[in-house]
Amino acid sequence: MAGHELIERHLRTLAERLPDPVVDELADGLLASYDDQMERLGDPDAAAQAALADFGDADTVTAAFIRASPARHAAITLLVAGPIVGLGWGATLVTANGWTSAIPLPLRLTLGLLLGSVVLMLVTALREQRHYRTVRLAALGGAATVAVVDTLMLGMVVTLVPPPSLLLLVALSGSVARIMLAVRAVPTLITRL
Question: What is the pTM of this model?
Answer without folding.
Answer: 0.80
